[in-house]
Design goal:
Layout (H helix, E strand, L loop, with lengths): L7 E4 L4 E5 L3 E7 L6 E8 L50 E4 L9 E10 L18 E10 L4 E10 L4 E10 L5 E13 L5 E6 L7 E6 L3 E7 L11 E5 L10 E7 L4 E7 L5 E6 L7 E3 L4 E3 L2 E7 L2 H16 L13 E3 L1 H4 L5 H14 L3 E4 L27 H11 L3 E6 L3 E2 L4 H5 L19 E2 L5 H17 L4 E4 L21 H19 L4 E4 L9 H4 L4 E3 L6 H11 L8 E6 L12 H8 L3 E5 L7 H23 L1 E6 L6 E7 L5 E8 L10 E2 L8 E5 L6 E2 H6 L2 E2 L8 H4 L9 E13 L2
Parallel strand pairs: 21-22, 21-30, 22-23, 23-26, 26-27, 27-28, 28-29, 29-30
Antiparallel strand pairs: 1-2, 2-3, 3-4, 5-10, 6-7, 7-8, 8-9, 9-19, 9-20, 10-17, 10-18, 11-12, 11-14, 13-16, 14-15, 15-20, 16-17, 24-25, 31-32, 32-33, 33-38, 34-37, 35-36, 35-38
The chain binds alpha-D-galactopyranose (GLA).
Alpha-D-galactopyranose binds next to loops.
Length: about 750
């Protein structure tokens, strides 16, 4: 066994498992006395050896030991792969099972292992995948509980081309009694020291994915969600970076969870400075009855190692998620420049208004028109109609079909907004099926934005919504769907589940969401899906498996977007980040920024517009026409290039980032200055990622420069300055929200 396996090396005698693609190594072994798993190493690649016995550290300490007479067998002091509470480990466990006696003591011991070329799919769950058997290898470790018939299966996939390890866990009950899983993390790793900063993304509605970085402290630190969605508040991601790690250098471990529901991302530093990192479904509000003969598969988690700073980590996530998480025909297709009518009209529109916007849009070069909320039932505000997915003929007398035809006749694609998981009380659906609303009978149900949530843990509910959506999609030509989800779940309960299975509700709900997505994708593979949850309330890798792009935030202000998009890019590729140019004064913060600033920010994502373009001055329309042409010319580079963050909006007045093509012959650099500076010093922006020996043309008018000199010396902003005093003092030159955009193209000639 294992002969043809290149990325997974196994020392059969010592039962040591070494996953390595020559850039990273992940190493663990079976302990000889109790056959549990001991974690040995994760990081930059080390060479394989026939024994790693020297990595085992044991010490006699004043502690509880598993085996009588043995003073070194305390699990409290052993770095583990998948820890269990009890049997001498007192730290937070990765798995917790309640057995028929009521105890929660498991002791999982190694039984066997299996190897797979490529990566097996996770049934019913989003996951990264392999397209060709040679690009990944998977190891399954089977452990059996010493005291019950439950087996634990740990899956590890290593990729040839990505410095990432995918992990998930499966529990199987081979016994005669049901057991209850109270916790099952997707990944747990014990690091030998605690010299890290804890990095995560936090926020709220309209200020998602703000980067936060703090020194790791002794004890437990965590982020998570029990809101039924991954949430605006924390993203299912965390990183452990060395204190000296910057965007461009140093070690960092990134953990990302491919799931859209409740999650916990947690770090525990124990009294011996061991750092236990884990990520998985949040154990609060989770339990799962595992009946005899049944199995439970956790979602998947990804661990990334970079020795090249935060940018290095992000680039691994970007490549992996862009190429091996996003699926379907839109994965590699250039995404259309869209216009969405939400901020242009809100609920107040009719067919003529929509067509007027669409005609203007087509004229400017926009490619997709998206009809947002308000086209169904009698929805003129947010108090009604969710669940009644029938067109409102007062607004759209020709129906969705008629409107779609007219939009297509203008040469545009047509997209439609849905909020499939929701129900308003003022609907035919609620009158007919009041019990489909999530509620605990006899107790208060809270609303969010006047709406309630459908019980997607029930298959008949999912089936019904599928039928309603299918009726529209099969009748009208629809090229794009924006799938929204505008509130969290505050009273988790399903009237269809027995009381001892209510802990399954949240997970079953998300499985229902995934089922509906999958059915729609299978039936309508041409549709481009964009996920949304009041902006970025469910911007997570789980969603990316179904919807290649996601609306990053309801905040469309260019300055706020610098932070939101910078933070989002820590994990997610530009091809997934929905970003639009909107009107000024901005509808969320009232700020007035230039069209150029708004455009340059929105370029770095899936570019589009969200304002009433019919009211713009001719000059602005001309500018937009040119901006769209520029974007189309370079969108492949923006969607597929390597994104590099240069200056952080979390650290100062300036933000800069760039995107470089894989062959380094092209790049676009953007610089943003939020507040203007008087009597400014000389400034430079050092670039990254270029080919040192190549000579680059910068825009059309700048001097030619070599890659090494742009990296070492940088762009000189003084090039933009004038030596004419009258121009210097011109009022329009002294303004806030300045931006610069550079297009770099390598000439054929290399350095002599
Ligand atoms: C949410 C979305 C917006 C818009 C509205 C419609 O807030 O994030 O983009 O679709 O709902 O109600």
């Amino acid at each position: 066994m294992g002969k043809n396996f290149k990325l997974i090396k196994i020392n059969e005698n010592t039962l040591e498992f070494h996953l390595t693609n020559e850039k990273v190594s992940y190493l663990f072994r079976v302990m000889e006395n109790n056959r549990q798993l001991e974690h040995l190493y994760f990081g930059s690649a080390i060479r394989h050896r026939h024994s790693f016995a020297y990595l085992t550290e044991r010490e006699v300490r004043p502690s509880n030991n598993m085996f009588e007479g043995d003073h070194t067998s305390s699990l409290e002091h052993i770095k583990q792969e998948y820890p269990v509470l009890g049997t001498t480990d007192f730290r937070y466990p990765a798995v917790r099972i309640r057995y028929s006696k009521g105890d929660r003591i498991s002791e999982f011991q190694f039984d066997t292992y299996r190897l797979y070329q490529g990566k097996p799919a996770l049934e019913g769950l989003p996951a990264v995948y392999s397209e060709d058997e040679r690009e990944a290898e998977t190891l399954e470790i089977v452990l059996k509980d010493a005291w019950s018939d439950v087996s634990l299966h740990l899956f590890y996939t290593i990729f040839r081309d990505y410095d990432a390890i995918a992990r998930s866990t499966k529990l199987i009950n081979n016994g005669e009694y049901a057991v209850y899983i109270e916790n099952a993390m997707s990944l747990s790793i014990d690091f030998p020291d605690s010299g890290f900063d804890f990095i995560h993304l936090n926020g709220a509605w309209a200020r998602e994915n703000h980067l936060e970085r703090n020194r790791l402290l002794t004890g437990i630190q965590s982020v998570g969600s029990v809101r039924g969605a991954s949430s605006h508040v924390h993203n299912p991601f965390m990183a452990l970076a060395r204190p000296e790690t910057t965007e461009h250098s140093g070690e960092v471990y990134g953990f990302s969870f491919i799931y859209s529901g409740n999650f916990l991302a947690q770090v525990e530093v124990d009294t011996y400075q061991v750092t236990r990192a884990m990520i998985g479904i949040h154990p609060l509000e989770f339990s799962w009855k595992l009946e005899p003969g049944k199995s439970f598969q956790t979602p998947e988690a990804i661990a990334v190692y970079s020795g090249h700073g935060l940018n290095g980590m992000s680039q691994i996530f970007h490549e992996l998620y862009r190429n091996r998480l996003v699926r379907g025909e839109w994965r590699n297709k250039e995404r259309p420049v869209l216009i969405n009518n939400w901020e242009a009209t809100y609920f107040d529109f009719n067919e003529e208004k929509i067509l007027e916007i669409a005609r203007n849009a087509a004229d400017l070069g926009i490619e997709l028109f998206v009809l947002d909320d308000g086209w169904f039932g009698h929805r003129d505000d947010d108090t009604s109609s969710l669940g009644d997915w029938f067109v409102n003929r007062n607004k759209l007398p020709n129906g969705i079909k008629g409107l779609a035809e007219k939009i297509h006749a203008l040469g545009l694609k047509f997209g439609l907004w849905f909020e499939p998981e929701m129900i308003s009380k003022d609907t035919k659906l609620f009158t007919k099926h009041p019990d489909w609303m999530i509620h605990v009978p006899g107790k208060r149900v809270s609303h969010g934005r006047n709406q309630f949530v459908l019980d997607f843990s029930r298959s008949e509910v999912v089936d019904h919504i599928f039928e309603l959506m299918d009726a529209i999609l099969s009748e009208a030509r629809i090229d794009y769907i924006k799938w929204d989800m505008n509130r969290y779940i505050s009273e988790p309960y399903s009237v269809a589940l027995p009381s001892d299975q209510q802990g399954e509700f949240f997970h079953r709900y998300i499985l229902g969401v995934y089922t509906l997505y999958e059915r729609l994708i299978q039936k309508y593979p041409h549709i481009l899906f964009e996920s949304c949850a009041g902006g970025g309330g469910r911007f997570d890798p789980g969603m990316l498996y179904y919807a290649p792009q996601a609306w990053a935030s309801d905040d469309t202000d260019a300055v706020e977007r610098l932070k939101i998009q910078y933070g989002t890019s820590l994990v997610y590729p530009l091809s997934s980040i929905g970003s639009h140019v909107s009107a000024v004064p901005n509808h969320q913060v009232g700020r007035i920024t230039s069209l150029q600033m708004r455009t340059n920010v929105a370029y770095f994502g899936t570019f589009g517009y969200e304002l009433d373009i019919t009211t713009l001055e001719a000059e602005e329309k001309e500018q937009i026409r040119r901006d769209i042409a520029f974007f189309k010319e370079h969108r492949k580079l923006i969607q597929e290039g390597r994104f590099i963050r240069l200056l952080s909006p979390f650290e100062g007045n300036e933000t800069a980032w760039m995107v470089v093509s894989e062959d380094r012959t092209e790049a676009i650099v953007a610089h943003f200055e939020v507040l203007a500076k008087p009597n400014r010093p000389y400034e430079r922006l050092r670039l990254q990622g270029l080919s040192e020996g190549k000579k680059y043309q910068i825009n059309e008018d700048k001097p030619l420069r070599y890659g090494d000199d742009l990296i070492q010396i940088g762009l000189l902003f003084g090039e933009n300055f004038t030596d004419r005093a009258d121009e210097y003092w011109a009022k329009e030159k002294r303004k806030d929200f300045n931006t610069r955009l550079y297009y770099l193209k390598a000439l054929d000639e290399e350095r002599e």
